[in-house]
Specification:
This protein has about 130 residues and is mostly beta strands. The protein contains no helices and twelve strands.
Length: about 130
């Protein structure tokens, strides 16, 4: 497993931007890295896959964030990023960074937290209209 820790959440107005960061510790050679979210409601352990970047640098996005969110990684700084633009109130959620060898297959899917190898602790994003 990897050790992951998010930062950068907070509040924004609709149409605004936020950048989330995730520090990554451990050997990432077997892993893809990505961002998930949890919206309060039924399924406390369920998390929705938003964006993934794999070891080749290929990126994968779910439909409703494509063109608004950008995932990137700086392995010199061991940091994963999610640049979020044109935010909408429905983007309000707790955002998690994640690592798993099969993570690209989870984009656009809702996964139980136990199905993914490593998680950060989560960071809250609130978007007001």
């Amino acid at each position: 497993q990897l050790q992951l820790a998010e930062s950068g959440g907070g509040s924004a107005q609709a149409g605004g931007s936020l950048r989330l960061s995730c520090s990554v510790r451990g050997d990432t050679s077997r892993y893809a890295l990505g961002w998930f979210r949890h919206i309060p409601g039924p399924g406390a352990n369920d998390r929705e896959g938003l964006a993934v970047i794999d070891g080749t640098g290929a990126t994968y996005y779910t439909t409703f964030v494509k063109g608004r969110f950008t995932i990137s990684v700086d392995m010199n700084r061991n940091t994963l990023y999610l640049q979020m633009s044109n935010l909408k109130p429905e983007d309000s959620a707790t955002y998690y960074c994640a690592a798993d060898p099969n993570l690209k297959h989870f984009v656009g899917r809702t996964m139980h937290r136990l199905a993914v190898d490593s998680w950060g602790q989560g960071t809250l994003v609130t978007v007001s209209s």
